[in-house]
Amino acid sequence: TFPSGTTLREVQAQKRKVxxxxxxxxxxxxxxxxxxxxxELFMExxxxxxxxxxxxxxxxxxxxxxxxxxxxxxxxxxxKVRLSxxxxxxxxxDNAGKSIKTIKNRIMLLHTLYDKMRKLGYxxxxxxxxxxxxxxxxxxxxxxEPYDFEEIHKMLRLVEEYDNPFQAKRRLSSxxxxxxxxSLHTLSxxxx
Length: 192
Fold this sequence. Notes:
This protein has nine helices and no strands.
């Protein structure tokens, strides 16, 4: 930790200095440390250099229950995590309904963790990072159903009922998919 008032430039310079020192050294191998322990070390070393929003995002990605990295991979020894573990985690997130963006963000954070720990000497320099060659799920396209006659009629009735029917006209002309229209009722258009 750095004393309060330390500039970001000083923190980053110190971080680079430590990384270079470890890169020049033979490295330290902690084969028994788990992913959870390495996450703690990562956050201790780099947490102070992150912006508050990035820090919150990393913390959420690491510790969120039940989908966080620590929750799913935390008990595995850091050096024994394989592509199959990370692929299972990726598939788990997909089956849990997480967006592809969320899945990619979690895997990229895990990649960053491994890359930084390798630079610091916690992994051998030629160690394979287990996030490489991950097969991300394909984007699921949502089927959009066209309006049927009844839905169009319902929208037109709503347009006629109000003095300011802008929203109903906008929905009808924008091609809003059918399910939102099905849920419309007269009370949903309360004009101020």
